Amino acid sequence: MQAFVKQRGLDKEIYCDSAGTIGYHSGNPADSRMQEHAILRGYELNSISRPFEDGDFEKFDWIITMDEDNYQQIIWRDSLQQYTDKIKRMTDFCSTNQVREIPDPYYGGYQGFENVLDLLEDTCRGLLEFISTKNNEC
Q: Which of 11, 26, 126, 135 could form a disulfide with 93 if both were Cys (CB 3.0 to 4.6 A apart)?
């Protein structure tokens, strides 16, 4: 997403961050295999894993989840339903692919990583268009 934001010259207006719903990989960079595949497409994955925090609801305009389990966990954390409108599934922004969630690439071999990157390129374009439209409405 950061690459798409930068490509559109919006990196001063749009801040992207990534967080997991569990802290298992906290403090680690992206999986080395994903980094390899991303580099082949010209993307640099330089974020460090961190767990989602309740303060993220206030800090970010949008909370985007990759799969149904993450979506349900984030919805559960919003127990008072204060932030329901800002919680979205990444696949809500698909334009060419019709999938319900972004799959876990780690057990799908080479093609698993390529498939996830294909899906993310599609959804990131759609998400950026959504954000741009919402910002223009304000």
A: 126
